[in-house]
Specification:
The protein is mainly α. It has 2 domains: about 200 residues, Growth Hormone, Chain: A, CATH 1.20.1250.20; about 220 residues, MFS general substrate transporter like domains (Growth Hormone, Chain: A), CATH 1.20.1250.20. The protein is built from 22 helices and 4 strands. It is a multi-pass membrane protein.
Length: about 475
């Protein structure tokens, strides 16, 4: 019986139940940053065509508008983890708020404040904010969550991103429908795409209000010698009325002087192999095709009878499968284990990618382009594979990547190591987004076969190198990784 299974059979006291509810509320607040990330990405997706028209952009400039947010996320990710070691997890999360507000307000008025370059600046600053939030939030949740529900609480991050994408998609459709098009003036002298940007105020304000109410991580408090404050937080999030023993374990795990290692020191330490495993997991999460597979989603739906203007219906279908997948992941991750779910989900991912690649391999070429619109059978297979891909990704590599990143590193290196791994995630994401149009122009079938190959490598790498972290205290992670 695993530690998780054993814990699951033990009745919970009222104090522990109350503590778990409190820890859950803190995890939900921490995921407001990832919610903004998903919301912002879908807002830009709906506005990008209008932005291109507004600023008379070519293809490269439109790609740059899409990629600058990811570049900002990379900057935020690289600095946030180590900064959170210095000034605190909560403090970094609170500082993210003004960055989100900057993009939400000023991005909408960029035509009058500096044009396209100012819009890029807004996207970079907003990206720094959500990059920092998505890096620090998993570590913060890991450090405040009871071990037996830690996985599902960190997995809220992926659900938050999906809900952000969905809500922004609904708003995009509503705003565009009300205006007639995203380039048409809607109200107060603002065009529809500018109102889309102003809708970023919704998650930004919620984020600012609620993150101001969360406590500091007990692990960080111990690293600063504030043991009494750490004990008080542990008492609230675990229900343990005598948490001094856990405080002592945290202090022991930090070692002499309790000084946490910086990025360069981590890369020179005996933990560098563990960090490289984290970097590889981060890279594989992006290289399995999570962004690229949606490139042809409209074409796939049209092939099975959906009209070109049924964007909301398509969004609802895709969101339904995403929610089913991530809910499955949340319910199973603390029972089945992180490693087994990554392997199972990764297998479903690469099999789905193989089907999509096969469809494009056998599809007829019309005017130099693979055309599946005339074959409902091929379209049905591709849509079914897309839905299976969503189930596989959102139940495993989507949420569990964050769980593993939040758990796998010992207390002494967690902040810096998460910056390295999260930075790798944003960098590979940027490269995938940047290169995907060129790869597809070369060969859609070849592109998806490449993603399929990366999926196979991801499963093999996970099976060989990743250690199971479920059901264990964070203070034991140093021994788990040996």
């Amino acid at each position: 019986m695993t530690p998780t299974d054993s814990a699951a059979t033990t009745p919970l006291s009222p104090a522990v139940r109350s503590a778990q509810r409190y820890a859950t509320s803190l995890a939900l607040i921490a995921t407001l940053g990832p919610f903004f990330y998903g919301f912002e990405g879908m807002v830009l997706n709906g506005a990008i065509s209008a932005v291109g028209t507004e600023f008379e952009l070519g293809a490269f400039a439109k790609g740059l508008a899409g990629a600058t947010g990811i570049l900002g996320g990379l900057i935020g990710a690289l600095f946030a983890g180590r900064l959170s070691d210095r000034i605190g997890r909560r403090t970094v999360l609170v500082l993210v708020g003004p960055c989100l507000l900057f993009e939400a307000i000023l991005g909408a008025f960029s035509p009058w404040l500096g044009g396209f370059l100012f819009l890029l600046l807004c996207r970079i600053i907003g990206g720094i904010g959500f990059g920092a939030a998505t890096t620090v939030a998993p570590g913060y949740v890991a450090e405040i969550a009871p071990a037996k529900i830690r996985g599902r609480l960190i997995a809220f991050r992926q659900l938050a991103i999906i809900l952000g994408l969905f809500l922004a998609g609904v708003i995009n459709v509503a705003v565009t429908s009300a205006a007639g098009s995203s380039t048409t003036e809607l109200a107060l002298g603002l065009k529809a795409w500018q109102w889309m940007f102003l809708c970023l105020l919704i998650p930004a304000i919620f984020y600012i209000v609620f993150t101001a109410r969360i406590p500091e991580s007990p692990r960080w408090l111990v690293s600063r010698g504030r043991d009494d404050e750490a004990a008080a937080v542990l008492r609230r999030v675990t229900g343990d009325q005598e948490p001094e023993g856990r405080v002592a374990e945290i202090r022991r795990s930090l070692g002499e002087g309790m000084e946490k290692l910086g990025i360069l020191a981590i890369l020179r330490s005996h933990w560098r192999g563990l960090v490289m495993v984290g970097v590889a997991i981060a890279a594989f999460q992006q290289l399995t095709g999570t962004n690229g597979i949606f490139f042809y989603s409209n074409t796939l739906f049209e092939a099975v009878g959906f009209s070109e203007d049924s964007a909301l219906q398509q969004t609802l279908i895709l969101t339904l499968f995403k929610i089913i997948g991530v809910t499955t992941g949340i319910l199973l991750v603390d029972r089945v284990g992180r490693k087994r779910m990554l392997i199972a989900g990764g297998t479903l991912i690469f099999l789905s990618l193989a089907v999509v690649a096969t469809v494009f391999t056998v599809a007829p070429v019309v005017d130099g382009v693979h055309d599946i619109s005339g074959s409902p059978v091929l379209g049905f297979l591709a849509v079914a594979a897309l839905c299976c891909f969503l189930l596989g990704f959102t139940s495993s590599w989507g949420p569990i990547f964050s769980i593993v990143m939040g758990e796998m590193f010992p207390n002494k290196i967690r902040g810096g190591a998460m910056s390295i791994a999260s930075g790798a995630d944003f960098f590979v994401n940027f490269m995938v987004v940047l290169l995907f149009p060129y790869l597809v122009a070369w060969s859609p079938a070849g592109t998806y076969w490449i993603y399929c190959a990366f999926g196979v490598l991801a499963v093999a790498f996970t099976a060989r190198f990743l250690h199971e972290t479920g059901g264990r205290q964070l203070e034991d992670m140093g021994e788990v990784a040996r």
